[in-house]
Amino acid sequence: MDPSEQRIKIAVQKTGRLTDHSIDLLERCGLKMTKSKDQLICYGENMPIDLLLVRDDDIPGLVSEDVCDLGIVGLNMVEEKRLNREADGQPAQCKRVFQLDFGHCRLSLAGPEDTPYDGPKSLENTRIATSYVGLLNQYLKSNNITAEAVYFSGAVEIAPKLGRAEYICDLVSTGSTLKANGLVEKEVLLESEAVVIQTQKPLGEEKQALVDKILQRLDGVLQVRESKYIMLHAPKSALAQIRDLLPGSEAPTVLALDGSDDKVAVHAVCRENVFWETLENLKAAGASSLLVLPVEKMLA
Ligand code: PRT
Ligand code: ZN
């Protein structure tokens, strides 16, 4: 077998909003990479894993067609490409494995601020400019609306000014692009964030073991992102109350304190951020010597 066949290929956006986060995430999983001269492939130095650097639009297809084993891409793109494939009579061949909590945005319908809007029925017999024809048509169908999706590959927000459409359907994050173009958000069709997708093709034993290892590390990286290790001293009498105040923690470790009969040390991993308010509440409940530490790695 060609040795390159044994390597895991992960599709990542080459240049764009998802690129830095995606590469950072893989580096946190322990992957060290060299960029090749053509910069289309990054070769893993310490693991048999290569990154394919491509347009985000191509990532769902590369994973569905088994060119890549995994991909990191926006849910908006995964869903749009799934609908496009379905329309072409091809089944979706990739599955979603993780939500990554970056690249947050929403696919929304927007229209000029001076156009009266009275719910989805106002869209009847209008033209809607979008790059997301699949998702838009799905929305129109589920609301029993007849409207024309006008395909724009970019700069969708200028379509109403050009007289090419009455409404637009595009990604929004802060809303400032809509505002700058005199448009107002009317409906949210999809809430999106970056996700990891995986091929549905059965892999060989060795490759599957490597994919499982990467997925387990990704899970670990995602879990520690918000996690904190908290240490404090507590009066035995306040232990139950202090335990309830620890955010998102399982059973804490309670240790005897040398030379103290009425106080114990409490150590806990909190799977949520620990804010100043929480520390203040713990202190008010009787805790002292509070220490909060970041968690670097975690393996369940
Ligand atoms: O070259 P390539 O095809 O890879 O890149 P691209 O230009 O198609 O993608 P890119 O990098 O812009 O976006 C990649 C992914 O980031 C998207 O598929 C989403 O999953 C996610 N994402 C998150 C966004 C936004 N936020 C976003 N705000 N993608 C695009 N936008 C655009 C939007 O289209 C609009 O033009 O930003 C503008 C609106 O932003 P606000 O902040 O003014 O609302
Ligand atoms: Zn794109």
CATH architecture classification of the largest domain: 3-Layer(aba) Sandwich
Instruction: State the helix count.
Output: 8
Strand order of the largest sheet: 2-3-4-1-5-12-6
Largest sheet: 7 strands, mixed
End-to-end Cα distance, whole Å, is 35 Å
What is the mean predicted local confidence, pLDDT? 92
Question: Based on helices, strands and strand pairing, what is the structural class?
Answer: alpha+beta
Number of beta strands: 16
| Alpha carbon gyration radius | 25 Å
CATH superfamily of the largest domain: Periplasmic binding protein-like II
What portion of the residues fall into strands of 2 or more residues?
Answer: 25-35%
Question: How is the secondary structure organized here?
Answer:
Blueprint: E1 8-13, H1 19-28, E2 33-35, E3 41-44, E4 49-54, H2 59-64, E5 70-74, H3 75-87, E6 94-99, E7 105-112, E8 127-130, H4 133-142, E9 148-151, E10 167-172, H5 176-180, E11 183-192, E12 194-199, H6 205-226, E13 228-235, H7 239-245, E14 253-256, E15 263-270, H8 276-284, E16 288-294
Parallel strand pairs: 1-4, 1-5, 8-9, 8-10
Antiparallel strand pairs: 2-3, 3-4, 5-12, 6-12, 7-10, 7-11, 13-15, 13-16, 14-15
Helix pairs in contact: 3-4
Bound molecules: phosphoribosyl ATP and zinc ion (ZN).
The site of zinc ion has 3 residues, from loops.
